Amino acid sequence: xxxxxxKYLVLLVIPMIVFAGCNKFLDINxxxxxxxxxxxxxxxxxxxxxVAVGDRQVGNNAHDAGLYSPKQFIYHxxxxxxxxxxxxxxxxxxxxxxxxTFADVLWINYYNTLFELNQAKTMGLQEGDTALAGAAMVLxxxxxxxxxxLFGNVPYSQAFQTEKYPKPxxxxxxxxxxxxxxxxxxxxxxxxxxxxxxxxxxxxIAQGNEQLWTQFANTIKLKLxxxxxxxxxxxxxxxxxxxxxxxxxxxxxxxxxxxxxYVNEVxxxxxxxxxxxxxxxxxxxxxxxxxxxxxINLLQNTHDPRLAYFFAPVASSGxxxxxxxxxxxxxxxxxxxxxxYFGPALIGSATQNQWIMPSYESMFMYAEAVARxxxxxxxxxxxxxxxxxxxxxxxxSNDSTTAATYMANNSIANxxxxxxxxxxxxxxxxxxxxxxxxxxxDPLESYADERxxxxxxxxxxxxxxxxxxxxxxxRLPYAESEFTRNNANVTAQGTINVFTSKLFWEP
Length: 507
Hints:
It is globular, with a radius of gyration of 22 Å. The strands form three sheets. The protein has a two-stranded antiparallel sheet with strand order 1-5. By secondary structure, the chain is mainly alpha-helical. 46% of the residues lie in helices and 3% in strands. The protein has 21 helices and six strands.
């Protein structure tokens, strides 16, 4: 991807303008710092929004390296990362005793980014740049699905209409899902418009490639359908037809990632690298986070060659060592150097692209859709292609041969294991490999899949003696900031129990 470092320098200023009105969708008074067409144009705000979406995949706050990520708990809960014994664990996280402060920063960060995307869409339409508006809608749909998957009912139809709805009502999660499908249909229509040079030059994801944006939109449409696989009577056929008739999903080599020109300087590194790689001076980006013992054991027990790409062996022993999530400090490796840090495929360079949706993830969803009979095709071939793409995405040499050997020699990966099984069992088999492929890359997808299919082998739950449940929370509590600024509407959602108040798509 061609770097645009000068534009990236501009982006360091743009978030200051945008974030000056935090929680704009809730502001009661007119904000003098609000973005207007007199202060910024659609292409500039769109670039800032794209970068912010990349930040949200990591969960950090605009390239503040070393901060505790608001999404860190998902990496922990799903078995990818864990803290070493040099740090006191976050007690409410390892015990699952969640209150309304737990996800407050996460909520605010999501809505800040969604506000930017809404501004980009609005300005794009005003300026006649419908392709840019369509791309903003695609990214917005991606993030809104994530918000719904974490919180359930949320402000949606009235969000960002500050003057008319200073305290927006909550829409039902199912209604939001349905509207996101329609919104993506509209975005695809917008993306058929001619691309102007401003959009192409400002688009640091796809450089104005409308086909790639359309395939990304279709992949999100499929993900919305996949989430609802366990809803009784659910029929995806109408939406599947739209997807297949409009260019299909992302395929091999078609990852969605962002890079505005990351450089190895403070506040300008790739956000994942900034959090989990190294500082510009070579110090560890985090001294508290290491590999989770659960994923290390899983990869070692299946002789998975991806292990050395996800994580690094401990220098003193050459062995891969994980940390047991929720264990007392005295039982854990004493420091980050005593456990496996992150590997070359995850922290290859401070200038690497920041993934938003890896190609293999789309291919695994496609394989599941084929296995369920939603899409005509060969489920085995689709599954094997997805596993192979995972190897290729990680940069494993001779990826096809290496992947084929791995699949042939491991029951956890060999299609023969489920060749005659039910569609549901085949889906779980496919999702298990998607979980492995997503190690430290997309924990939210894995968290959603576990709530949907309950497919993971035991061992990933916190071992804390103070934990209040032997299962993961099925959702997050609403943010404290909502009770402060939008109390009537959030209170109207009733009492939320994070273990029993299931989302509409959770069985």
